[in-house]
């Protein structure tokens, strides 16, 4: 690995190192200019070097790739080239994207589960393991790292992997950018961004900044799916002296979204755009989140570096669910309106030391991560009685009131040893403690005191051995243990009908052991990667029953995920870029599991929500100026919708095309583009709601749809 790779792998939150660049060998300087006679050929800088040198399954996608001829609304638009990552647009902004890595997270009713998400080093995943992507500003992304497999164990409460988003760091010259996009179903996205710096960042007092804001509105493909979203992101850095920097990070998001809900197969086939429950109950969700973070980095000596990151945020959510009147009348039922007020904060402190023991260079990183969240959860009836007739979609009497506190405290240690010029050994360990405590303030006749607490502990080791066959070919083997506690949402209900109250404290954490073999080869200006893996999980957390937007969870015993991931990313003939990825994933139950009603899932059944095969290919002509164009094709095999494997979302293949023209005039640049998605108007299900008790598994995707956009930039030269 050498010290060049330790920058990526030295610690959980490898992502907190914007001042550390990925090292390149002399033959890899793909951003260099080669003068030949009077001709100057410039080859665009491409990421991927960390992918080659890192002994783990990691993919890097640049922000430019996410913005090129894209609507820039969802991460699902530009991450199709990442193997092992199943990311789907629910066409439901009230529930966020459906994102899973190697099958972990596929059961999530909303948000991101089983995968840790970071933005500029600040977790978008709460201490309990529940995350969201609504605060991610694609307009200012610098790159996205997707880490899969054993190394993800070093990030704490997640088994599937890590998605890290780094936003752009401002540099000279100052640039102002304005963008707009208009697409089908009345979709508008407008954005502005300013970035720049005073000085080059090497002297005390030098400042860099990136400030971005956007607004997105849509009527939605489906009925009752209109949305408006305002998003702001800012990063301000200052060099304090020759050895230290300070970075301030601000983020704010506000979303008001209708919730169209799922459909039965019959409803989907009859009219995929309908939303019968959404219209009847006026289902919707609003959220407002604001957070601030501060990162301090200091070079303590030539061999030692200190990094301190701290953050605080507040998130307010109100959600109206499609709960019929009869259940809401029961004394123990927590209502059909959820009101959450969350305050979260944390601090991550780490020390990195690089040295040499005899002839063996090594690096050791130790740290302590502490995160906490306080949640005030209230429930209200989703109706008001008018002359004895219920009017749904109105907040009624209170039915739930509790305070939930959760925190995690995780010390961690990782070391990297360059044993020889060919062999590198990495080893690490994290000891994770996750605590839940709930205090019930709603105690009435028929609804007793449901206060309770739970604490989980787990030692998470990992190790990896890398062999450099040549300078352009690495082989590695790695193993690690993952840990996944129930989230507060998974603990929230013991039955969907309200017959059992209180937190579901009988749930156990899931523990996963992963083994992986991989190969990475540099081919010209491209990278070919392959990974073979198997993950064995005990006490898998799965959906026991889901109804009307509410889910109850259970431990399902043993499961196994085994698969193959292949990817090929190649730049050729100066302006051509090709990406290909394929994933085969066999995710199954390894023992029979039964619920309290005697319903059993046989051993060998596929895990619901997980595609067995995924494929992606794209080809683009991407010059710096002039005409640009591209095409992509995506394949997803069928997805089981329930544990019994008697309902599924069919397989599909969709094609997208884009084209545009980039103009440049002195200090100005203009990019005009258009795109069409689902070119052949395929009717398919975009995502499946796992184990939905009423058979409403299906969230349909749009047919053929169009969009046009423009990006205008001015540079102060």
Radius of gyration: 25 Å
Average predicted confidence as pLDDT: 87
**Helix count?**
7
Broad shape: globular
Strand content: over 45%
Terminal residue distance: 40 Å
| Helical residues, percent | under 10%
Low-pLDDT runs: 1-49
Query: What characterizes the major β-sheet?
Result: 22 strands, antiparallel, barrel
Task: Quickly give the structural class.
Answer: mainly beta
Number of strands: 43
Characterization of the model:
The chain has 717 residues and is mainly β. The strands form ten sheets. The protein has a 22-stranded antiparallel barrel. Strands 3-10-11-7-8 form a five-stranded mixed β-sheet.
Quick structural gist:
The protein is mainly β.
Topology:
Layout: H1 2-9, E1 33-36, E2 39-42, H2 49-53, E3 57-62, H3 63-67, E4 85-88, E5 98-101, E6 112-113, E7 115-119, E8 122-123, E9 130-131, E10 141-148, E11 161-167, E12 175-183, E13 187-198, E14 207-218, E15 227-241, E16 244-258, H4 265-270, H5 276-281, E17 284-299, E18 304-320, H6 325-328, E19 337-357, E20 360-380, E21 383-386, E22 389-392, E23 398-418, E24 423-440, E25 452-470, E26 473-484, H7 488-491, E27 510-523, E28 526-538, E29 541-547, E30 550-555, E31 558-572, E32 576-589, E33 593-594, E34 600-601, E35 613-621, E36 626-636, E37 639-640, E38 648-649, E39 652-665, E40 668-677, E41 685-688, E42 698-700, E43 705-715
Parallel strand pairs: 7-11
Antiparallel strand pairs: 1-2, 3-10, 4-5, 6-9, 7-8, 10-11, 12-13, 12-43, 13-14, 14-15, 15-16, 16-17, 17-18, 18-19, 19-20, 20-23, 21-22, 23-24, 24-25, 25-26, 26-27, 27-28, 28-31, 29-30, 31-32, 32-35, 33-34, 35-36, 36-39, 37-38, 39-40, 40-43, 41-42
């Amino acid at each position: 690995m050498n010290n060049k790779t330790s920058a990526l792998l030295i610690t959980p939150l490898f992502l907190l190192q914007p001042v550390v660049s990925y090292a390149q060998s002399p033959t890899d300087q793909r951003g260099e200019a080669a003068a030949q006679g009077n001709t100057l050929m410039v080859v665009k800088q491409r990421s991927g070097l960390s992918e080659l040198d890192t002994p783990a399954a990691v993919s890097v996608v640049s922000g430019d790739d996410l913005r090129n001829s894209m609507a820039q609304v969802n991460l699902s638009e530009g991450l199709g080239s990442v193997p092992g990552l199943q990311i789907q647009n629910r066409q439901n902004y009230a529930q966020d994207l459906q994102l899973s890595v190697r099958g972990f997270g596929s059961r999530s009713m909303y948000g991101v589960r089983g995968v840790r998400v970071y933005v500029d080093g600040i977790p978008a995943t709460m201490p309990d393991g529940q995350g969201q992507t609504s605060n991610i500003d694609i307009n200012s992304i610098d790159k996205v790292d997707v880490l899969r497999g054993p190394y993800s164990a070093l990030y704490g409460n997640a088994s599937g992997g890590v998605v890290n988003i780094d936003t752009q760091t401002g540099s000279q010259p100052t640039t102002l950018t304005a963008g707009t996009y208009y697409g089908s179903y009345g979709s508008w996205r407008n954005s502005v961004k300013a970035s720049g710096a005073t000085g080059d960042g090497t002297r005390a007092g030098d400042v860099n900044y990136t400030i971005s804001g956007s607004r997105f509105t849509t009527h939605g493909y489906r009925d009752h799916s209109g949305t408006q979203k305002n998003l702001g992101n800012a990063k301000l850095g200052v060099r304090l002296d020759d050895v230290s920097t300070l970075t301030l990070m601000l983020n704010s998001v506000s979303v008001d979204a209708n919730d169209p809900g799922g459909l039965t197969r019959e409803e989907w086939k009859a009219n995929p755009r309908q939303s019968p429950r959404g219209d009847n109950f006026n289902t919707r969700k609003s959220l407002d989140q604001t957070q601030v973070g501060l990162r301090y980095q200091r070079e303590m000596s030539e061999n030692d570096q200190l990094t301190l990151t701290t953050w605080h945020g507040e998130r307010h959510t109100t959600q109206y669910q499609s709960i019929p009147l009869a259940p809401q009348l029961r004394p123990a039922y927590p209502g059909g309106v959820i009101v959450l007020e969350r305050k979260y904060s944390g601090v991550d402190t780490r020390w990195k030391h690089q040295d040499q023991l005899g002839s063996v260079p090594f690096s050791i990183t130790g740290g302590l991560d502490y995160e906490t969240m306080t949640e005030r959860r209230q429930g209200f009836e989703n109706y008001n009685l008018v002359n004895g007739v219920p009017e749904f979609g109105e907040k009624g009497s209170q039915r739930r009131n509790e305070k939930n506190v959760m925190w995690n405290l995780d010390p961690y240690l990782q070391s990297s040893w360059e044993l020889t010029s060919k062999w590198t050994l990495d080893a690490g360990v994290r000891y994770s403690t996750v605590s839940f405590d709930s205090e019930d303030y709603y105690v009435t006749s028929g609804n007793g005191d449901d206060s309770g607490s739970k604490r989980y502990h787990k030692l998470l080791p990992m190790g990896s051995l890398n062999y450099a066959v040549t300078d352009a070919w690495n082989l590695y083997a790695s193993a690690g243990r993952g840990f996944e506690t129930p989230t507060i949402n998974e603990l929230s209900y013991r039955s969907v009908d309200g017959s059992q109250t209180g937190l579901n404290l009988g749930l156990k954490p899931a523990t996963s052991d992963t083994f992986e073999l991989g190969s990475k080869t540099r081919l010209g200006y491209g990278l070919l990667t392959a990974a073979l893996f198997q993950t064995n999980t005990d006490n898998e957390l799965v959906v026991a029953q889901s109804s009307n937007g509410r889910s109850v969870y259970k431990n399902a015993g043993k499961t196994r995920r085994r698969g193959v991931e292949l990817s090929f990313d190649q730049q050729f003939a100066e302006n051509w870029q090709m990406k290909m990825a394929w994933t085969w994933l066999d995710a199954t139950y390894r023992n029979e599991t039964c619920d309290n009603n005697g319903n059993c899932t046989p051993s060998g059944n596929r895990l619901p929500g997980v595609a067995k095969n995924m494929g992606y290919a794209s080809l683009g002509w991407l010059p710096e100026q002039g005409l640009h164009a591209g095409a992509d094709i995506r394949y997803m095999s069928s997805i089981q919708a329930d544990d019994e494997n008697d309902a599924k979302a069919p397989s599909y293949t969709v094609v997208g095309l884009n084209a545009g023209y980039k103009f440049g005039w002195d200090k100005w640049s203009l990019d005009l583009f258009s795109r069409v998605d689902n070119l052949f108007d395929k009717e398919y299900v975009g995502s499946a709601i796992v184990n939905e008790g009423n058979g409403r598994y299906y969230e349909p995707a749009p047919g053929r749809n169009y969009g046009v956009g423009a990006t205008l930039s001015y540079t102060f030269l």
